[in-house]
Every structure is written in structure tokens, then in C-alpha cells.
Amino acid sequence: MKIIVANWKMNGDLDLVSAFIERINAIETKNTIVVCPPAALIREFNDFHHLIGAQNCFYEDKGAFTGENSPKLLKKLGCGCVIIGHSERRALFGETDEIVFKKHEAALRNELIPIVCIGEKANERVQWKHVLTKQIEKFIGAPLQNTIFAYEPVWSIGTGMIPTTEEIQEALAFIKNKLGRNVPCLYGGSVNASNAESILKVDTVDGLLIGGASLKPDEFAKITMM
Ligand code: PEP
Fold first, then answer.
1. CATH code, 48
2. Closest residue (by CA) to atom 6 of ligand 1?
3. Which of 200, 215, 203, 183 is nearest to 37 (CA)?
4. How many domains does one find in the chain?
5. Would you say 183 and 175 are in contact if contact means Cβ atoms under 8 Å apart?
6. How confident is the model at residue 95 (pLDDT cuts 50, 70, 90)?
């Protein structure tokens, strides 16, 4: 059983929601499927037979934080998990490792499974171990029974470039070695229906986090059935 997560980012509309629900609800798979649409579309997934997640949440449950998403309300809306620290949040919205850790605590406090994203940038490829170590440092010793990590090399996101399966194996083994063998780890970065199968065969890979290809219901459906 693998965990297959769709990250729509700030894409999609009501038509895509309908097409996606119709296509993915018809699937028979042993895998766990999660869709993370933009927050404004979450309620449209009431009839979805699989899990719904959010793409981000704030680290407080309520208050004067205009524009932020409350983890408490996301839970009430039916979300089971939340992506935390996606590289786009880190790069465009100034999310630091400290903020990511606080969001992780907020997610757990609200019984949302955090999917914590980590990964090195293009100019950090040689020092990837150092980068990952820094990003996960705070999590060592934290309660991780209900946490998922996603290794997403930033240079691979949306670029069509992916690490070799050996590199993915090594990176996920490195993360599990630091955080505990049982922590589920996903791979994310330019996954599509052509490369998903070989990545899913990597022994350290517990699932996939999929951006672009998750906007194509047929292609995403194929991946969920691998
Ligand atoms: C992502 O946004 O997490 C991602 C992996 O995107 P893509 O699949 O498009 O590279």
C-alpha cells in the first residue's frame, strides 16, 4: 500500500473537481489517495471517496491573521492532512524551518496529518545531506507517529528533471535513518504516469506527492493504480 497525494497548487476549478471526483471515485486500488486542492475548493470534495488535504495552514488556530487558514477550521471542513513547508511556501512566502515546525505542531494539535516537505535547491545538490539535516533537525525526538515526510528536490519540482532511483533511495534512507525507520516518506518532483512505477518500486518510497500530473484525472488515476 502506497500513499499517493495530489497537490493541485493554486490550480483547478469546479469543472476539474467534478471530473476528478468522477474519475478517481471509480478507481479500485489498495493505495491511499489524498487530494489537496486550493482551500477555496475543499468543500466541493464532499462526495470524494478518498482523503482530502490542505496545502498549508497557519500555526495558530484562530485570531487576527488575515488571509491565513486555520488548521482547526480545515479539520472541521473534512481535511485529514495538510502539506507543510512546501518549497513554494518556503521560497515565496518566507517559511523558515522554525515556522514549518510550528505548523507541524498546529497540525498535530488539530488531528491533521502533516505532510512535511523537505529538499535541496539546484545550487545545493552537492550538500543535499547537509540541507536535509538542517530541515529535519527540529523533528528529531518530536512525536512523529502521525507525520509523513515528502522528499522533494526543489530542482525537480515542475521541471521534468528527476533524481535517479538510486538517489531517491539514498535520500529517503537518509531521512528515515535520522527520524526513524517507520516514518513514512514520499517522493515528489516531476512524477508522471511514465516514471511513477519505477519510483514506487524503490524500497524506501512509501508514496508520491504529485503536482502537475495530478491535474490530469486520467493520468493521476493511472498512477494511483500502480
Ligand atoms: C509539487 O508541487 O509538490 C510537485 C511535486 O510538483 P510537480 O509534480 O509538478 O513537480
1. 3.20.20.70
2. 211
3. 215
4. 1
5. yes
6. very high
164: number of Cβ within 10 Å: 9
* Stated pTM of the model: 0.98
Q: Which residue has the cell 473537481?
A: 17
So what's the pLDDT on residue 40?
Answer: 98
- Of the candidates 99, 87, 97, 78, the one whose C-alpha atom is nearest the C-alpha of residue 188 is 87
Alpha helices per DSSP H over the chain: 14-25, 71-76, 87-92, 97-109, 128-136, 165-179, 196-200, 217-224
Q: Which atom of ligand 1 is nearest to the CA of 117?
A: 3
- Show the domain range for 79: 3-224
Centre of ligand 1 to C-alpha 193, Å, is: 13
* Cβ within 8 Å of residue 183, ≥6 positions away: 144, 147, 148, 149, 175, 176
Residue with the smallest CA separation from ligand 1 atom 1 is 211
